[in-house]
Write a structure and sequence with these properties.
Blueprint: H1 13-27, H2 32-49, H3 62-88, E1 97-102, H4 108-120, E2 124-129, E3 135-140, H5 146-165
Antiparallel strand pairs: 1-3, 2-3
Helix pairs in contact: 1-2, 3-5, 4-5
InterPro entries: Cation_antiport_E
Transmembrane segments: 68-88
Subcellular location: Cell membrane
Length: 167
């Protein structure tokens, strides 16, 4: 049995609320005309764009998500100190390189979060994701062991994202 897609006035309710509030804040007024126009935009924009979005997995484990965010913040702080030590030292000791990280996650949202996490951590920058979404190419400021870096990213970042998104 096939189900017919249903029409929802607010296909993305949180987006609508954010759009409405942003409109009022940008205009710095709650005049009736702006309330009506903001409400119209908050309904119309999500309706017009909802068909363009690909379904993505949601956050399934809030505690794991909080743990992941705290871990990333800690890693950013530690990496800042490590990069500072590298930058202060002689530049000829640095071994910059590109590394291809094989991906086990397939959805765009978790891949984007993984790439962003890698870029937020000083000393590494996500350079590209392959078209087939099987590889994340990362530039590393100082590569000492490629296999160790791949294992670190997969274990420390990708594995928790697979748990959070159940993918």
């Amino acid at each position: 049995m096939t189900t017919k897609p249903s029409f929802h006035l607010l296909p993305m309710p949180m987006h609508s609320v954010i759009l409405f509030i942003a409109w009022l804040l940008l205009n710095n007024t709650v005049a009736p005309g702006h309330l009506v126009l903001g409400a119209f935009l908050a309904i119309a924009i999500p309706l017009l764009t909802s068909g363009m979005q690909d379904p993505q997995p949601g956050f399934r484990k809030p505690i794991a998500t909080i743990r992941y965010v705290l871990m990333v913040i800690f890693d950013i702080i530690v990496a800042n100190f490590e990069v500072a030590v590298l930058v202060i030292g002689p530049a000829k000791k640095l071994q910059p390189a590109f590394v291809a990280i094989p991906l086990d996650i397939e959805h765009e949202l978790p891949i984007t979060i993984l790439a962003s996490t890698v870029s937020l951590t000083p000393g590494t920058v996500s350079a590209e994701i392959s078209e087939d979404k099987k590889w994340l190419y990362v530039h590393v400021l100082n590569l000492t062991n490629e296999e160790e870096l791949i294992a670190l990213i997969k274990h420390r970042y990708e594995r928790p994202l697979k748990e959070i998104f159940k993918c």
